[in-house]
Structure formats: structure tokens, C-alpha cells
Design a protein that fits this description.
With 282 residues, this protein is α/β, with parallel strands linked by helices. It has helices at residues 13-26, 31-54, 56-68, 134-142, 157-165, 202-211, and strands at residues 88-89, 97-98, 116-117, 124-127, 146-150, 173-177, 185-189, 192-196, 268-269, 272-273. Strands 1-8-7-5-6-4 form a 6-stranded mixed β-sheet. Strands 2-3 form a two-stranded parallel ribbon. Strands 9-10 form a two-stranded antiparallel ribbon. The longest helix is centred in the first third of the chain and has 24 residues, at 31-54.
């Protein structure tokens, strides 16, 4: 008969409870998992922070462009550049082309109109690291491009990067160093020029909004800015800038053009048909 006594060999209840408590005490905290989660969170935060900081210049540029959007041409205001303080306007006849070895005695520095090389410099968002022959750069303006020139001794580092943001990959934009330029930055469109002292000047973006491919201000509507290629104009090996003053044989501003120079958008060179260029981007 059961006499209420604990069977021999059975652990006492207090001993079982103590053993369970010991198991609970000995169970380890998953520090490895916690550290891994913290590491992932910190990594994600670091990556996000890096890209946020790295993209800050792009965001600032978008804000500048949005602020300048009101300067886009319209039916009521075909040339908004007239509302931008400091813009110089000149009337230039179009279509006068010179040969690759000929120079023009330009009346402005940098020039923004007048006779120019029959081959245009590639101007679809290209940033030239070295100065480019002026006569080729002026031809880009006839096609509706905006040319940003800068003094390489005065515009460097972050300032140079801010200028590049306006040009790199942007259709009908081109940029190049211009040694000896004063002030540090000058913007050119056909018949229009703006010189500024700072790369953060809001008028830079206003000028671009007002004059890039503005059909009311440039002569060769629909002309291309694509590269012509080796033998004509190679953007990977462009004709160099000549810092010397033009000599007595330089062509005057009223020059009518040289025989054999490339003519028009897809004209001729030396009497032979030139390669056709693709239509301009819309």
C-alpha cells in the first residue's frame, strides 16, 4: 500500500526545480546574432549616408535647374536671356566657314558668333579636358549649343565639378578650358554671352534654360551636335586651342567663307559629299 512516502531513488521536487533553474541560468545570450544584426544595420546606414552625401551635388543642381525653368523660351517671351543681367547680345551672320588651318580674328573673347570652321566640335554633353580650337567651338553655337568656357587656373576641384554637372551627358552642351579667360567662367550661345565670377551664380542655369536650342536665337535649326569623327572632328583627339593672337592672314568678322570648306549640316568638303549626320535629338 501506498504510504505517501517518496519512492526510493526518485529525485526530490526541490532538486528538479534546482536543475531546471540551472538550465535557465546557463542558457547563453546570442551575442553573435546581435552583433551581426547591428553590423548589417550600420553597414546599411553607412551606404545610405555615403550615397546621400555623394548625390548632394546632383540634388543641388536639380534644384538650380528647377529654379531656372521659368527662363525657358515661350511664345510670349521668345528670348528670355534679355531678362538676365549681364548678358551681352550681338548680331552675327551665319554660315561663313573657314578651313581647318585658317584662323578668324574674333571680336570677342571667347567668341560667340562669326566665321568658324566648317566642322563643328562634338557638343552633346562633352566636357573637354584640354582647350579646343576656337573656330570649331564657335560652330557648335550655330547649332544651338551652349558652350561653357572656364579659366583652368581659377576653376578647379569642387568648382570644376559643379560646372561639369551642367554639361556632362546633357544634349547640346559643351565645356572646355579657355586659358587666360577673365573672369573665371564665360557662357556662350549664338549671339549671346554671359561672364560670371562664381560657379554657383544662378544666372548660369538661367542662361542655359533660355538659350540651349532656343529656336528664336540660333540660325541652323535642327542641326546636329553629334561627333563627326576622325578626319573631320574627333572628340577624342580634337584640334588644339591656339593661344597666340591671330596673325595678319586671319579672316575678318565679315568674311564670307573659304572655298572648299564644309558647308551646312551635311554639306561638302573639297567638292565631295560629306558623311550625313543623324538628326538632332528632340
Amino acid at each position: 500500500m501506498a504510504n505517501g512516502k517518496q519512492k526510493k531513488g526518485a529525485p526530490k521536487k526541490s532538486a528538479v526545480a534546482a536543475a531546471r533553474g540551472s538550465v535557465v541560468v546557463k542558457k547563453q545570450v546570442p551575442w553573435g546574432t546581435i552583433a551581426a544584426v547591428i553590423g548589417i544595420v550600420l553597414l546599411a546606414a553607412g551606404v545610405f549616408g555615403y550615397y546621400y552625401v555623394a548625390s548632394s551635388d546632383q540634388r543641388a543642381q536639380r534644384e538650380r535647374e528647377e529654379a531656372a525653368a521659368s527662363f525657358a523660351p515661350s511664345e510670349d517671351n521668345p528670348d528670355p536671356s534679355t531678362d538676365i543681367e549681364g548678358v551681352v547680345t550681338e548680331e552675327y551672320a551665319a554660315g561663313a566657314h573657314v578651313l581647318p588651318h585658317e584662323r578668324v580674328a574674333y571680336d570677342k573673347t571667347p567668341p560667340f558668333g562669326g566665321p568658324h570652321d566648317g566642322n563643328w566640335a562634338a557638343c552633346n554633353g562633352i566636357v573637354y579636358p584640354e582647350p579646343v580650337r576656337t573656330e570649331n567651338m564657335v560652330h557648335t553655337l550655330e547649332h544651338g549649343a551652349v558652350w561653357i568656357a572656364y579659366n583652368p587656373d581659377q576653376v578647379q576641384g569642387e568648382d570644376l565639378d559643379q560646372l561639369k554637372l551642367r554639361v556632362d551627358g546633357e544634349p547640346f552642351m559643351v565645356m572646355s578650358p579657355y586659358p587666360g579667360l577673365d573672369p573665371p567662367v564665360s557662357l556662350q550661345a549664338w549671339g549671346r554671352q554671359l561672364k560670371v565670377d562664381s560657379v554657383t551664380d544662378e544666372r548660369i542655369d538661367q542662361f542655359i534654360a533660355a538659350l540651349r536650342r532656343n529656336p528664336n536665337t540660333y540660325p541652323e535649326i535642327g542641326a546636329s551636335c553629334d561627333a563627326l569623327g576622325p578626319g573631320l572632328f574627333d572628340p577624342d583627339n580634337p584640334p588644339p586651342f591656339n593661344p597666340e593672337p591671330p596673325g595678319p592672314d586671319a579672316k575678318p568678322m565679315d568674311y564670307q567663307g573659304s572655298a572648299g570648306a564644309r558647308e551646312g549640316n551635311t554639306g561638302s568638303v573639297g567638292g565631295q559629299p560629306a558623311p550625313a549626320t543623324p538628326p538632332a535629338e528632340e
